[in-house]
Amino acid sequence: MSDLLRKPAGTTGKVHDITVDNAKGPKSPDWGYVGFGLYHLKAGETAAEETGDREVILVLVEGKAEISGAGEDFGLLGERMSVFERKKPHCVYLPDGTSWSATAATDCVLAVCTAPGKSGHKACVITGIDEVVRGKGANTRYIHPIAMEESDVADSLLVTEVFTPPGNWSSYPPHRHDEDNFPEMTYLEETYYHRLNPKQGFAFQRVFTEDGALDETMTVSDGDVVLVPRGHHPCGAPHGYELYYLNVMAGPIRKWRFRNHPDHDWIARRDAE
Q1: Smallest Cα–Cα separation from 6: which of 174, 252, 229?
Q2: Which of 16, 52, 102, 249 is the most exposed place for a label (fewest CB within 10 A)?
Q3: What is the phi/psi pair of residue 270, to 5°?
Q4: In CATH, what class is 5-271?
Q5: Is 273's pLDDT higher than 80?
Q6: Distance between terminal CA atoms of the chain?
Q7: Distance between CA 222 and CA 62 in Å, rounded?
Q8: Is the CB of residue 41 less than 8 Å from the CB of residue 107?
């Protein structure tokens, strides 16, 4: 199995714990920014962590929880019981040097998105998340930009979730953001947390560089995480299965600038006409 593909470690508790240290491997030797954790909590269970030198965005993927952190009580958050209801997510930002706690009011799935913090933002519930439609035809997908650069809520983190209809492609045309060369491109590591509906389905993700030094095509199942240290990273959802993913990105600067693969950029140009 590719070291870029991470399977959940069980079905309860903290099932993903991707850190700067354990993300490093033969295909991702320079990983240094993005962290991703995921809890499956039963009603009444609590998860709690110190943020240390990292900022955090908590995303209630499913279910409801009482959330507090950085000396504030944010109350009961969460609305959708299934991510595929496509309701807007409830999310909380916590700066570095603080802590947080979440107690499940229902069974819930809680994502913990992390990146280096600079103590530049205050803890808050993230609001103003609108749905954006991107692409055309079989490249259409639906976006919830939780904390992209237009939203000044974080020091380093860029977080978004994407719903890809059955039979469609996403993160497509293939694009990359692996050079620290702003404004032409920014270096951003990225994780993809995948969900499928119905859950017995599968999808595909390819991570590849133009020189062929990295070329991994992975079959992703419900609950898997894919690491994207560099290169292009398109996803495909087979007919009959809806694909959701939660993206976490971070790098030297909080900007998202990418370049399409030169062989496939014609698709973006055509769709823009």
Answers
A1: 229
A2: 52
A3: -65, -45
A4: mainly beta
A5: no
A6: 40
A7: 14
A8: yes
